[in-house]
Design a protein that fits this description.
Structural class: mainly alpha
Order of helices and strands: HHHEEEH
Radius of gyration: 16 Å
Helix content: 40-55%
Strand order of the largest sheet: 1-2-3
Shape: globular
Distance between the termini: 42 Å
Number of strands: 3
Number of helices: 4
Length: 132
């Protein structure tokens, strides 16, 4: 329950930060995402991407906390574009299994969830624009 309450508070704080004129937040945690979307619909595309990235980051975090690390298999690696990401519990980062995908120190490429989420929503928005 503490985890859900923390996510709820994060959504409210983020919404208030980017849309200070948003109305009162709903008491029901399940309705907070709809409230956020409605309260931020008038913002710039960049601000909406940041909002959507936070929601995706929370979604990934929730799944991982419940033991569903397979959710990362639907996200491509930002560096090599392969489908080989996995969760490193010890440092709470996502890493790439691909042996050729290394950072400048020769270690596996890694990212925090916020980086992956922002990349995913940015790519989704670009595909959506290209389709129109």
């Amino acid at each position: 329950m503490d985890y859900i309450a923390a996510a709820y508070r994060e959504v409210i704080a983020e919404t208030r930060a980017i849309a200070p004129d948003a109305g009162p937040a709903p008491a029901d945690e399940a309705a907070v995402y709809e409230w956020m979307a409605a309260s931020t619909a008038h913002l710039s595309a960049e601000q909406q991407l940041a909002r959507d990235a936070m929601v995706l980051k929370q979604s990934l975090k929730h799944a991982i906390a419940l033991g569903d690390v397979a959710v990362l298999r639907r996200v491509t690696c930002p560096r090599c574009a392969c489908w080989s990401l996995f969760w490193r519990k010890e440092d709470r980062r996502v890493a790439c299994f691909n042996r050729r995908c290394r950072d400048r120190h020769g270690l596996p490429s890694t990212w925090v969830l916020q980086q992956l989420a922002l990349r995913q929503v940015t790519m989704r928005a670009a595909r959506s624009r290209a389709a129109t």
